[in-house]
Amino acid sequence: MHRSTVICSLTIAALFSCVAGVATLEKRQASDSGIPTVDDVTNPVCKPFVAIRDAIMGDIFHAGGRCNDNARAAIRLSFHDAGTFSLSLEAAGEDNGGADGSFLVDPDEVLRTENNGMQNIVALLKPLPERFNVSAGDVLHLAGTLAVLACPGGPVVNTYVGRGPVKNVNPHNLIPDTHDTIPNIIDRFNDMGISVREAMALIGSHTCARQRFVDQAFANDTFDTTPEIWDIRFYSETKRNESDPGVFRLPSDLGFAQNSLTKDDYNRFVGSLSTQEDWAREYADAHEKMSLLGQDVKTLTDCTEIMPETIHLRDITVTSSGGAVDPAVDPGKLEAEIQRTRSIWLQ
Ligand code: HEM
Ligand SMILES: *[C@@H]1O[C@H](CO)[C@@H](O)[C@H](O)[C@H]1NC(C)=O
Ligand SMILES: *[C@@H]1O[C@H](CO)[C@@H](O)[C@H](O)[C@H]1NC(C)=O
Ligand SMILES: *[C@@H]1O[C@H](CO)[C@@H](O)[C@H](O)[C@H]1NC(C)=O
């Protein structure tokens, strides 16, 4: 990250640079937080996205350093937008979904049963493409990659812009249902162009998730014991099928941990702090791929330089648990990292 330091020596000439230094104080504070400013961003194509980033992190994810309902919904939304991509439909010359932001344009997609729970995030993101004169796909998928960072522990996912207008309304019945069989779910991921290994990395986003509609008697139950933290507990807890109060196990997630098609790739993410780093990297690669389904990356611009830094769990775990399985987060260290790295978005 860029850190400009103003050094004032006691010469007359240098006084001018000291004065100039005062004028840029505000800018330097933002830079010191690790959050790139418009001036820090080198690619002109990416500069306008700094304001969109701030609207999403500051206004929509409110307390920008934390994983809240809107951030969790934005992650799921990026999957439901992109996950209707279909190689077989594409080969047949039919509408094939993809990461195009159609949710923000077609009024009916969010009303489908499979998309229940995303009405709020869609309503919040909908005005942004017109307000900032960018495509719906760019807004939706920037929101998704920012949301991952809003959940402490979440990695930087390479983030591209330049998607064109929405291609088509998402085809129906292509988002996997939790009651589908594991082979059917895996077939569907393959038809998206997503491998089992990538799918098992992506499913770890259920570390920051709640359910409302699978079983309404357990509305708001989470999928692991730490829904505010982007950690690998989801994998180990689901594998053990522990019964924790307020935690819900999706049939498909329990299946991934057991089924011969998926369990080896799933189990790669059951482990310790170093496993957390492996998962974060693989998740980031798989999410990047997901956010580009149906898009031609050669026509897009990599704007990853606008993203804030990640909050590494290795920096915020309780000292005694270094390297242990499922290390616990120290709340004081977490708060200090949020204040340090997300300052401009905190209210
Ligand atoms: C086999 C594939 C998947 C199935 C069957 C599945 C199923 C579900 C279900 C049933 C919910 C709860 C919805 C509700 O009742 O409110 C949920 C939530 C969620 N899913 Fe998935 N999911 C899958 C894959 C993914 C992927 C690939 C991602 C992202 C990379 C993802 C991200 C999320 C998130 C973040 C939530 C929480 C949303 C919130 O708290 O509002 N899921 N998923
Ligand atoms: C919006 O962006 C397009 C290019 O993507 C440009 O041609 C157009 O002039 C812009 N409109 C406004 C109002 O800035
Ligand atoms: C679930 O959480 C939402 C806020 O996110 C709240 O409005 C709702 O009342 C909660 N439902 C239950 C059953 O706790
Ligand atoms: C998980 O545990 C519940 C009871 O808590 C049990 O009903 C269910 O069969 C278990 N599922 C698996 C896949 O082990």
Give a verbal description of the structure.
It is a single chain. The chain has 347 residues and is mostly helical. It has 15 helices and 4 strands. It has helices at 12-23, 25-32, 48-60, 69-82, 87-91, 119-125, 128-132, 136-150, 182-192, 196-202, 233-240, 251-258, 263-267, 273-290, 331-341, and strands spanning 160-161, 210-211, 221-222, 301-302. It has a two-stranded antiparallel ribbon with strand order 1-4. It has a two-stranded antiparallel ribbon with strand order 2-3. The longest helix is centred in the C-terminal third of the chain and has 18 residues, at 273-290. It binds protoporphyrin IX containing FE (HEM) and 2-acetamido-2-deoxy-beta-D-glucopyranose (3 copies). Residues 72-73, 75-76, 79, 117, 176-178, 185, 202-203, 205-206, 208-214, 250, 252 line the site of protoporphyrin IX containing FE (HEM). It comes from Marasmiellus scandens.
